[in-house]
Amino acid sequence: MGKEECKTMLDALNKVTACYRHLVIALGSTSDSQNLREELKRTRKKAQELAVANRTKLTSLLKDKTISKEDRAEYERLWVLFSSSMELLEVDMKRSLEIGQDFPLKVPTRHLIQTGMTGSTTTVAARAMSVQNMKYEADSNIDTADLRDLQSEITQVSQMMEEMEMKVQVAPWAVEAKQEAGAELKSNMSVGNSSVGVISICEEEPKEEDGGGGNRDAGFASICAVVVFFVIVTVAVVLGYLVINMS
Questions:
Q1: Around Cβ 79, how many Cβ atoms within 10 Å?
Q2: How far is CA 126 from CA 15, 123, 134, 205, 226, in A?
Q3: Diameter of the chain measured on Cα atoms
Q4: What rounded mean pLDDT belongs to the chain?
Q5: Which helix (H) or strand (E) holds 159?
Q6: What's the angle, vertex CA 145, arms to CA 31 and CA 112, rounded to 5?
Q7: Which GO terms describe its biological process (predicted)?
């Protein structure tokens, strides 16, 4: 029961951190807005709440001396995954701070970047918050006021990660993976509900038709290209010869 609960909690954290990363990508682009800044704030706070819950649960289980060797190995594996998720969250929070400082909304100092991204990020934020519709209540100065809170929260996350290393001694290199690297990319299973809606993996490749007809067409095109090349070279030589004789 404890393992399944930990997996569920970790899956929820991974979903929110993935959503947060996607929102950070839109910062400073033409999709940037006051709503995006509020979405970022609420998403990262949700991620921090889930991080605290994961840390508390896994710490208590790993400190339990009565658990079996097999269960400990599984909890250590989940701990490493949790630590990796926290590192990604910290990196994205720092990136959000830097970009937010470079692209203030209330008093713009530079033009927003045309990245090719269009549309609203509301769907991603709502998925992270597990709600149907996002309700926006932030003030117009959220882009400046929130940067101070973000800087403080980055410090808190860094301190929490240091405390995690002190409380639980788990060597990442000693933890064995339960599947081969990239196994999730080879899987035929569809993307689950815990994934980010805007991220998808294209697993189907175009099917070949006409039993190799494409190869024959490609060979024919190559032959035609060679013939055209020789014709052009021949015409150039003849013209050059005529020019020389006429002069």
A1: 23
A2: 12, 5, 6, 32, 57
A3: 102
A4: 77
A5: helix 142-167
A6: 25
A7: negative regulation of signal transduction
Report d(CA 80, CA 144) in Å as an integer: 35
The contacts of residue 48 (CB under 8 Å, 6+ apart) are 89, 153, 156, 157
User: Model confidence over 27-70: pLDDT tens digits?
Assistant: 888 888 888 888 999 999 999 999 999 999 999 888 888 989 88
Structure tokens at 148: 């101070």
Tell me the pTM.
0.67
Rounded to whole angstroms, the Cα distance separating 194 from 13 reads 10
The Cα 131–Cα 122 span in angstroms is 11
Q: Which two tokens stand for residue 205?
A: 């490749």
The token pair at 171 is: 């060597």
pLDDT tens-digit readout, 95-125: 999 998 888 887 766 677 766 555 667 777 7
Alpha-carbon span 70 to 68, nearest angstrom: 5
How much is the pLDDT for 243? Answer: 63
For residue 202, pLDDT over 50 is answered with no
- Which residues face 113 on adjacent strands? 29
